[in-house]
Automatic annotation (TrEMBL), chain A:
InterPro entries assigned to the protein according to its UniProt record, in alphabetical order: MetI-like, MetI-like_sf
Family of this protein: Belongs to the binding-protein-dependent transport system permease family.
Pfam families: BPD_transp_1 (PF00528)
Topological category with respect to the lipid bilayer: Multi-pass membrane protein
Main localisation: membrane
Stored Gene3D superfamilies: MetI-like
Protein known as: Carbohydrate ABC transporter permease
Example GO BP: transmembrane transport
Keywords of this entry: Cell membrane, Membrane, Transmembrane, Transmembrane helix, Transport
Species of provenance: Paenibacillus nanensis
Parts of the chain that traverse the membrane: 21-49, 92-113, 125-147, 159-181, 201-223, 258-279
From TrEMBL, chain B:
Superkingdom, natural source: Bacteria
Pfam families, alphabetized: SBP_bac_1
Residues of the signal peptide: 1-18
Keyword Signal: yes
Name of protein: Extracellular solute-binding protein
Keywords: Signal
From TrEMBL, chain C:
The organism of origin for this protein: Paenibacillus nanensis
UniProt keyword annotations, A-Z: Cell membrane, Membrane, Transmembrane, Transmembrane helix, Transport
UniProt record similarity statement: Belongs to the binding-protein-dependent transport system permease family.
Transmembrane segments: 12-38, 68-93, 105-124, 153-177, 207-227, 259-280
Protein's UniProt name: Sugar ABC transporter permease
Keyword Iron: no
Membrane topology according to the record: Multi-pass membrane protein
InterPro entries linked to this entry: MetI-like (IPR000515), MetI-like_sf (IPR035906), UgpAE/MalFG_permease (IPR050809)
The organism's taxonomic lineage, starting at the top: Bacteria, Bacillati, Bacillota, Bacilli, Bacillales
Amino acid sequence: MMSVSASQMHNGKAGSGKSTALKLGYILLYVVLIAVAVFQLFPLVWLLFFSLKNNQEVFNLPPLSLPTDPKWENYTKVWEAGNIGVYFLNSVWITLAATALTVVIASLVTFAITRMKWKASSLVLGLFMLAMMIPVHSTLIPLFSMFNKVHLIDNPLSLILTYVAFNMPITIMILLGFYYALPKEVEEASVIDGCSVNRMFFRIVFPMTSSVLATTAIINIIYNWNEFIFVNTFISSDTLKTLTVGVQNFIGQYTTDWGAIGATLMISILPILIAFLFLSDRIVEGIAAGSVKG
Amino acid sequence: MFKKKWTTLLLTASLAFAVAGCGNNGGNANEGAANDGANESGNKVTVNFMHLWPEGVSAGQNKIVNQIISDYQNENPNVTIKQEVLDNEQYKNKLKVLSASNQLPDVGVTWAAGFMQPYVEGNLFTPVDDLLSGELNGKFVAGTTEAYAMNGKTYALPLEFNIAPVYYNKAIFEKFNLEIPQTYDQFKTVVKTLSDNGVAPIALGNKDRWTGSLWYMYLADRIAGQDTLAKAIKGEASFTDAGLVQAAQEVQALVDGNAFVKGFNGLSNEEAKSEFINGNAAMYLMGTWELPNWTTNEDIPQEFRDSVGFFKFPTVDGGKGNIDSWVGGPGVGLFVSENSKVKDEAKKFVEYFVTKWGEQSVTGAGVIPATKVDTSAIELPQLYIDLFTEMNKASSITLFADVQMKADAAETHLNQIQSLFGKASTPDSFAKEHDAAIKAGK
Amino acid sequence: MDKVMSNKKIIALYVLPALLLILAVVYIPIILTGYYGLTEWNGIGSPDFVGFENYAALLKDSAFWSSAWHALLLAIFSALSLIIYLAVAMVLASKIKGANLFRKIYLIPMLLSSVAIAQLWLRIYHPTNGILNSVLESFGVENTPEWLADPNLVLFAIFIPILWQYAGFYILIYYAALKNIPASLEEAAKIDGANALQIAWKIKLPLAMEVIKVTIVLAVVGSLKYFDLIYVMTNGGPNGASEVMASYMYKEAFKSYDFGYGSAIGFFLLLICLVATWIIRKLTATKDTIQYS
């Protein structure tokens, strides 16, 4: 921990200016950084404006202009039409459950594959990687008939199982790069200390990977939160559907209410924005190799 | 600290399992109830009904559906109608997945001809001819149920009936002293005048492809005649017919004359429509389902709604077509699943639904139903009355090509339409591709 | 040590739950897709076994090959843009002032669903009142391009939002990987007199190499089976100019009722991904894994 603050001080000195060239370089860097930041913030502002327009204004006004009378009623309309509250709760718990399961199970698998010694490990890794390559639409019909046979259609469990299974490969892949980079001394130290494998994993390795856990959690949350193909296919009861279905409520046979869709998207982005801000602060400095022993 | 974090995660996971367990029980309980109902028919019955009128946007339709269902449930206390609502695209996908596992809802929405053919051939829809000879006998507009008939049996009852006129913006026409074109030559002059004055003549969103198909169909109908077009689509004649090829050439001539809005091949119908509503484009060829937008939709400026008129697609000099021949046809209809455990109840519900829909949909949702409407008994905007009159005068109505053709041929047709408009396909290859696809019979 | 780390019971306990789930939920569909690919089936009733007929047709299907070519182009572009993402992540992971805030802002677009991204870029590309053409017009460009309607432009026009959509994803992964490098290593290098570029090139890059390799595979496989924005923004058009394998598969299976052929495309796509992964692994193979020293 000491080393972090030391390096910040060091950089601080460099920033306060040795040569003008360096200073100019920094100014240029900040100009670029701020320009990109504005560009990246633009979609959120655009979405907010979009959600305050009616169909005519969505198509006719320039994207970054506010209509003369903002259509706040889009939000009331969204809130009143359909079961948005129920969808919301379903989205939250299904996303959280699937994400927690995926991250924990994938960590166990990655640990076993990268750190433990067994013959079939590369074959098993291959099986997980292959699972990443199948296009989603190829799986709809087989999965439906399978869940139908085990009576899991119109049951949130079918969604959680599918989300966990389909996000598992990518989660393992991301974890893989980090586990390979974990210092060897970790195991050596713990084995010498007489740790069991379970203890080693849960007490030492798992906490050491908190950065990548937060990363994969963010990615899983975003995927699960925005998913709609499986929801539409496996769930038929309105009380079990999720927030992405809320968007559908405004796509009609012949017309689509874009403003209301914008409002739905705006409402649905808030929870993941909060989750993201919270989790992204968990991506922290790695622990120095030497500190494990102590 | 790390320990704490881990404990929280574990807790979340186990909680998730617990909640999932709850959901599991809930789901099964529901399913159980539904099955029980089905088995003891006559006692409590649940009819599953899948449709595509969500509350948010198809508010009029959704309200009628709910009204009809609640009335029906009041009149038949033993019946519960369970709805599932999806949007158009998702609805079609789900129907496909459900049919692969033989799990269609008891009652659902279908499109005519080519769309329903695989379902009929796979014995998934049940014939509803008994309903046609019952209370509904003579109630349908002539020609509407035929689109749902196959091998002499009718497999669904239509709810809508549409034709496609050319809507135009009267204000723009006045500004440039333009008259409603009666002949195609006059039409071309109108296009040229508008284009020369920097107004996009026609709004077209050809990313959706069926929109461009309407233009080709009308030109084919007016030049080659309704009969030739109908035969070619059925595979009884060739698309290489001189008149049909000429129609394709005319399409490209329109493109060359800048008749359509800029970038039309990349625009959705939704975007093109807004060009028309915003007054950026003067004409828009589209179905009568748009009528609420030109009459009662408060979101659209009154000034614009007052200036929308329509004209019939003009005749072509020397062409075999008739000005009273229309492109159109029934939209969606209701089917009853062949494997439904509550087939009789489902059929009764469909009969009730179609009747009530016919009574309420014009005034309640601005939809023109496939059942006959007594226009004198209800108050309607003039545009509706004029179009009802035209419908009754129609010499023939050619069903939308992509609806008529079998699925694979329809895809070829739509792709070729986009290619023709984008000039990636010549009129000759356009014709040949059509013949090949229709001949393949898929 | 080895004995502890090869405890069969523990391995089974760690791997089996995930493996069983994958076998049930992903492998059954893969196997069935492989089987449907050998049949003629419209999705209703029972499939007719036709052997390799679909695959024979596939090899001769020019529409399929052009979609495969488009997907391959996307894969190449995606892999190349990883360099930019890595550079951005390096800046964000460095200790410049405000890096934390910049990182959060930079990653916000990845929270948007495909529906929102598609709508945003449709407004940007709109031929008459889109942002892009408005800007071009203000610079005096007369015949502004029809981005999504011009077969020569559409593919590249659609690549940009796709690359942009995934930027956050990769920047996030790289950021975490770079953060994971112990600060002590950088300190040591600094004491030895290394400058920022040298540290990036000699220390950070090699230590993040395993993660970089993984992201190359993810980017290529993800691109080869890409679907979302293409389907919403252009539907593969005009005239198939922006069709990719997954959108072609979807159309064949769900629009043309040709589920057998669609499945064959899906299975073939899987094989292509497999080959691509194998090639990438061969190309990026290093003799031994770099360890902290």
